């Protein structure tokens, strides 16, 4: 099996540089915030962070392609770096510390490296295929992650981002049905919901509308921790436009509740 440890180390080096940049702009009085065509906010820090990642990758991995949130795709080939410079921009611009830079590497149709760096929380989460999932402040200060062993929805803790997307996609009833079955719900939101599943602190997380750059880095972190990452219709990986993340034991039960539009039984 191909190892991606060098790529993971590179992701950490780049994240160190991006963290310094984003923290210098966090709560800055002169932060410039604009509205994109999809009506979501973008700050000068988002664009500067992605430009920094791309600059480093062009120097260290010139043959690799890059797909990001804010700038056009570059390069071509089987190896594609996927970048979300600031996941949680709305939090970032309001001074809420729950935001992160997401860096991942795809080799073909597999996400083989994922790193989530949340410098305002002083935390980082990462994984590479076959190397396990880890969290800590750095490679030198890390602990291995494992999902929970909760096996009943009635005992499960569920995290989500908001109700709006569920309503807009016509799946609010299914989502509310899931919330009524679980033990506890909290809206930790964005990347944090999903890395908490990998840590075993939360058992389920879900979001109805997501792009590839929102999800790619999270997939190996969750799966290397023993969990499962699919769309809300059961498609494995970050390609289904939504996310249901679990410890694995609860996944099919949650799918049946959250996706009542799908008449077909979900695969085990």
Automatic annotation (TrEMBL):
Residues 61-70 have a biased composition (Basic and acidic residues). The keyword Cell division does not apply. It catalyses: L-histidinol phosphate + H2O = L-histidinol + phosphate. Mg(2+) binds at residues 69, 84, 86-87, 214. Its EC number is 3.1.3.15. GO terms for biological process: L-histidine biosynthetic process. It comes from the Bacteria. Residues 53-74 are annotated as: Disordered. Keywords: Amino-acid biosynthesis, Histidine biosynthesis, Hydrolase, Magnesium, Metal-binding. Pathway: Amino-acid biosynthesis; L-histidine biosynthesis; L-histidine from 5-phospho-alpha-D-ribose 1-diphosphate: step 8/9. It is an enzyme of class 3 (hydrolase). InterPro entries: His_9_proposed, Inositol_monoP_metal-BS, Inositol_monoP_superfamily, Inositol_monophosphatase-like. Belongs to the inositol monophosphatase superfamily. PANTHER family: 3'(2'),5'-BISPHOSPHATE NUCLEOTIDASE (PTHR43200:SF6), PHOSPHATASE (PTHR43200). This is Histidinol-phosphatase. The gene is hisN.
């Amino acid at each position: 099996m191909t190892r991606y440890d060098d790529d993971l180390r590179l992701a950490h080096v780049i994240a160190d540089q991006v963290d310094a940049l984003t923290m210098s702009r966090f709560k800055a009085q002169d932060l410039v915030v604009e509205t994109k065509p999809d009506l979501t906010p973008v700050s000068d820090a988002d664009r500067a962070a992605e430009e920094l990642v791309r600059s480093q990758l062009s120097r260290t991995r010139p043959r690799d392609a890059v797909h990001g949130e804010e700038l056009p795709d570059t390069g071509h080939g089987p190896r594609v770096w996927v970048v979300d410079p600031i996941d949680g921009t709305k939090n970032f611009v309001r001074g809420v510390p729950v935001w992160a830079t997401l860096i991942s590497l795809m080799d073909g149709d597999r996400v083989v490296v994922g790193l989530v760096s949340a410098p305002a929380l002083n935390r980082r989460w990462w994984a590479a295929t076959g190397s396990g999932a880890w969290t800590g402040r750095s490679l030198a200060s890390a602990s291995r992650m494992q999902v929970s062993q909760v096996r009943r929805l009635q005992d499960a803790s569920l995290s989500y981002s908001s109700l709006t997307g569920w309503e807009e996609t016509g799946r609010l009833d299914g989502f509310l049905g899931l919330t009524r079955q679980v033990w506890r719900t909290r809206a930790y939101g964005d990347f944090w919901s999903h890395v908490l599943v990998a840590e075993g602190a939360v058992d389920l997380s879900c979001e109805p509308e997501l792009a590839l750059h929102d999800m790619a880095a999270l997939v190996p972190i969750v799966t290397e921790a023993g969990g499962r990452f699919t769309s809300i219709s059961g498609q494995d990986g970050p390609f289904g436009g939504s996310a249901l993340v679990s410890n694995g034991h609860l996944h099919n039960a949650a799918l049946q509740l959250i996706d009542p539009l799908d008449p077909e039984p979900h695969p085990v």
